[in-house]
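Sample entry (316 residues):
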Amino acid sequence: MIVGRNAQVRCLTTTITSHTPKITLVNEPTTPFGDVSWHHPAKEVPGETAKDVEIVVSGLPSGKPITLKVGDLQEGERKQIPLPLPFSMSPAPCPVSLFIRWKDSAGKHEQRANLSVTLLPKDLPKTFPNQVATLVIADAEASQGLPLSADLPASIHGDTFVVRLPDGTPLPTHTEKVKGSTGASPSLRVHFIVPPLLPSLRVDIGSEQDEHVLLKGFSHRETWADGRTIRWLPGEGRETALRLKCKPNQPHRLLLHGQAFWANSVSVFADGQKVGDFPIRQGTQGLVIPLPPASQETLDVRLVFHQAPYPSREVT
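Predicted structure, serialized as tokens:
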């Protein structure tokens, strides 16, 4: 029997504004066993087309969900969809939920994604001429670690200003008074540095380096024919315990990437505090789990699976 690859539609966009309201959808077909990387007959079968794709946006200030028809998406096809976001007289953050629905030979499907939406005035500089300074960075990645500056309107006075990254992280700043032409009042220039990305702790579960992270709730190490090393989580029972290195008093994100042979859900606890419940769909996927600040340099994380099939989950 040859298993085909069913349609799998997901959203590639995480942040939009009133001025940049487009999201990108892609159809990346997958087998019932996830995105198999070893030789498998399913890889020789063309991926299915996602039929009658539509998106539903909920959580906008109007309170009414918006439904948009997208049409069909062939294997690997990407499509940009503009969302009808309103403008706002003042900047307004608005987290919304995006539901993606489609059909294929396996039936009807739905996937949820979170969007960070900021509603802005239609003409931001004209709406707040004395409050808005515009800085355009041609290459944000290349600018990491470099000093940058923004000139403020002459009508703004002050000694301390706060510059934040999109995630809210404040940056250290220095304010400089800039002399104007003869008879003109001095203006202000704010200097700051976009920090380089902090190195993250990456652990390949199944490798020799995973033993300092895994405390309990995992199977023995396996080496597959393609050279990959894996373990099954939670192994026996329903719980896996991890001990992660972290920076004290700072929030972190735990990213789990793996392959689930059965749908499940997991409750996550950090140092005994419940973080939330997270669904696990069948196939290859990633989970992004926000973790609260820890008082020490390690954080104990418990993954409690709601169902306990064995083997139940593989993380690679």
